[in-house]
Structure formats: structure tokens, C-alpha cells
Specification:
Length: about 400
């Protein structure tokens, strides 16, 4: 980072000091050889041409740090030089000071100088032609433009290129930063999606295993133990298959995968039947009521979200519901698919599987990603889950 010491702000650049020494020595050499820019002017002694030379040369070390001061002094010096025999080095130093004032000065001064020097050049040209009334008078305007307008225009062009390059660099850095933020957000979103899929596909199997293993340990009955072990084995095999598929997808993310059937609402009958088997020992009955309009198509993301919400609601019912009827109801109206799952709520004396609340979070995330509304909570003696999902293709954005 640049130094914030005020003293270092006016420390001359090494190249500027070298430019100062070379310019003054070159001017002194020209003067000593009798090479003058206006040898016919005898208003002042010849040595007077050295004064503007030395003064403007002394401004060179400050051309970067104090461009306004150097330009003001340089302007006075170049005017004073016109009353002497003149020195080409003095004129060249002034052009450099004009150039540096545009390049290193404040933006306002950098914008004004090319316009001001251009107007001065035009004014001098017109005044010279009007006063001398000879074609050669145009040379005065040309020289004025070369000494003032030319360096200012060159400096403005260079400054514009530098500012454009800096803006391009900043845009590139911002683009890279935004790309990194997008990548990080994509990673977070993908991890959240994987967490939802893993929970929805495997948690119901593990919950059934936990419930029936607890029942087998707490009820001393060979028939109960045999039924529980059958359910445990079935859910273990299915859960293991799901885990292997997910691990395969994660390990071979870049490889071509075989197409996997995406769950849809057509599989709710099988899902409810499986829940009915798993919840038989807990006194739970499961009922599916599909009141949707026949033949009404639904976007695949909506069907998947509705399926997972029903799946997770049934899993929660197996873990927490008291004996009674778990009712799953689907309706569609006004471009919305409504999923409602009512489970009997109360104190449960039988085996209960622990819960972490991740299921409710996953259901809410699925609904919000599709622009829907989700609620879950107690309604009297019923625990009610309700999700409203957009049923029109144009409403689904991801």
C-alpha cells in the first residue's frame, strides 16, 4: 500500500529529478552555443533566458506531486521567456509540465486543460492574423497549439487509456469475485439439496428400523419380534440401496450416470401402503385422498416436492403420531397444488423414534424454492402439514 506519510507525498520521483538535470543542462548548452529560439529580441540581456530555464527546470521534480503549482509557475515562466532571446529547452520543459498536469492532476483540471488550451490556441491564431494580416501569422497559432494544446491532448488521451484500463481491471476483479460468490452459493445450494435428498430417501427407512427394533426389544413376543425383524430387514435393504446410489453419484459426479426415475405423485399409493405396513404395530392407519383434476399435468419439480413432503410427513407420523388415522389429501385449484397431511397428535406411550427437526426444514425449503407456502403445527388433536405449490409450468423457475 502507498505510504500515508505527508512528507513522502512531495518526494520527487527519480526519473523527474533526472529529467530536470538533463533539461537544464541541455538548455545551458544551447545558450552557451548561442542557439536561441528568438535571437532578434534584445529587450533583455542574453543571460536573462537562463532564468525561465532554471525556474521551469526546478518544477520538473514536482510534476507528479504538485501539478497545479508546476503548471502555474511554468505558465509564468514561458511568458517571461518571450521577452528574452528564448531557449528551446524552456519550451520543451513547459510542454512536459502541461502534459504532466493533465496526466497527474485532479480529474477536473484534466478535463478543463485540453478545452482551455484549445480555446487559447484558436484565440491566439485569430488575434495574430488580425494583427499581422499575413499568412505567416498562422504559424504563431500553430506553435501555440504545439506548445499547449498538443501536450494537453496527449495527456488527456493517455489518462483516458489508463482510466479505462483501471476500470477494466476493477470489472475483471468484480467479475471474479461474483463468480466466486456464485460458486460458493452453488456449493451451498447443492449441499442443501443433497441433504434434503439424503434425509427424505433414507430417514424414513431408518425411522422404521428404530421404531420396530424398539418394539422388538420392549415387547416379549416371538410373533412381534419376527414381524419387527421382517420390517427391519426390508427397510435396511432399501435404505442400503439408496445409500449406495447416492454414494455412487457423489463419487462419479463427472461420469455419465444411468437415468434414475424421479419420484412422482403416481407413487403415493405405494408410499402410503409401505407406511401402512410400518405403522401397523403402532395402531396407525393411513388414508390417501387424491382430489386432483384427472389429466392435469404438473411440472416435474412440483411432483417431486409434493412426493417428498408426503414422504417426510408419513415418516414423522410413524415416529410421533398417536394411534389413529393419518390422512393424506391432495387438491388442485387456482393454479395451486395443495398437499395436506393430518396426523393424530397426543401423548404416545409406545416406542418413539427421536427427531431432529431437519425434516420440517427440508419440507419448508422445497416449498420456498418453488415459490409456494408451507405451514406445520398443531391444530387441536391433529398435527397438520400443509404445502401450497404452484401447479403451472410458468410458475416453476428451478
Amino acid at each position: 500500500m502507498p505510504s500515508k506519510n505527508p512528507a513522502s507525498a512531495f518526494r520527487p520521483h527519480r526519473d523527474d529529478v533526472l529529467l530536470c538535470v538533463v533539461s537544464v543542462l541541455a538548455g545551458v548548452l544551447l545558450w552557451s552555443l548561442g542557439v536561441h529560439s528568438s535571437p532578434n529580441r534584445n529587450l533583455l540581456p542574453d543571460w536573462a533566458a537562463l532564468v525561465p530555464l532554471v525556474v521551469l527546470g526546478a518544477m520538473e521534480p514536482l510534476r507528479r506531486t504538485a501539478p497545479r503549482l508546476t503548471l502555474a509557475v511554468g505558465t509564468v515562466g514561458i511568458i517571461a521567456d518571450q521577452f528574452t532571446v528564448g531557449n528551446m529547452a524552456t519550451v520543451l520543459i513547459f510542454t512536459d509540465l502541461m502534459y504532466a498536469a493533465v496526466v497527474y492532476g485532479k480529474p477536473a483540471m484534466a478535463r478543463r486543460l485540453p478545452v482551455t488550451t484549445g480555446l487559447i490556441t484558436i484565440a491566439v491564431t485569430i488575434a495574430s492574423v488580425a494583427w499581422l494580416r499575413t499568412p505567416q501569422a498562422l504559424l504563431i497559432g500553430v506553435i501555440t497549439g504545439i506548445v499547449s494544446f498538443g501536450p494537453a491532448l496527449t495527456g488527456a488521451t493517455l489518462r483516458n487509456h489508463r482510466e479505462a484500463a483501471e476500470a477494466a481491471r476493477l470489472r475483471a476483479e468484480q467479475t471474479a469475485l461474483l463468480a466466486e460468490m456464485d460458486r460458493a452459493q452453488a456449493v451451498v445450494a447443492e449441499r442443501a439439496r443433497m441433504a434434503r435428498e439424503l434425509h427424505d430417501m433414507v430417514a424414513n427407512h431408518l425411522s422404521a428400523i428404530a421404531i420396530h427394533s424398539t418394539a422388538a426389544l420392549s415387547i416379549d413376543s416371538p410373533a412381534t419380534s419376527r414381524d419387527a425383524l421382517g420390517v427391519i430387514r426390508e427397510n435396511s435393504v432399501q435404505g442400503l440401496a439408496e445409500m449406495r446410489r447416492l454414494i455412487g453419484l457423489l463419487r462419479d459426479a463427472g461420469a455419465e450416470q444411468e437415468p434414475v426415475a424421479v419420484p412422482s405423485l403416481d407413487g403415493l399409493d405405494v408410499l402410503v401402503a409401505k407406511a401402512r405396513v410400518n405403522g401397523a404395530g403402532s395402531g396407525l392407519e393411513f388414508v390417501l385422498e387424491d382430489a386432483r383434476v384427472d389429466g392435469e399435468p404438473l411440472p416435474a419439480p412440483v411432483e417431486l416436492a409434493a412426493y417428498r413432503i408426503v414422504q417426510e410427513s408419513l415418516t414423522n407420523a410413524l415416529k410421533h403420531a398417536v394411534p389413529g388415522t393419518v390422512r393424506v389429501r391432495l387438491t388442485s385449484a387456482d393454479g395451486l397444488l395443495t398437499v395436506r397431511v393430518d396426523s393424530p397428535y397426543g401423548e404416545r406411550s409406545g416406542p418413539r423414534a427421536p427427531g431432529s427437526g431437519a425434516g420440517l426444514i427440508g419440507m419448508r425449503e422445497r416449498t420456498q424454492l418453488l415459490g409456494g407456502a408451507f405451514t406445520a403445527g398443531r391444530a387441536g388433536t391433529v398435527w397438520r402439514v400443509r404445502a401450497s405449490l404452484p401447479a403451472e409450468e410458468r410458475a416453476v423457475t428451478g
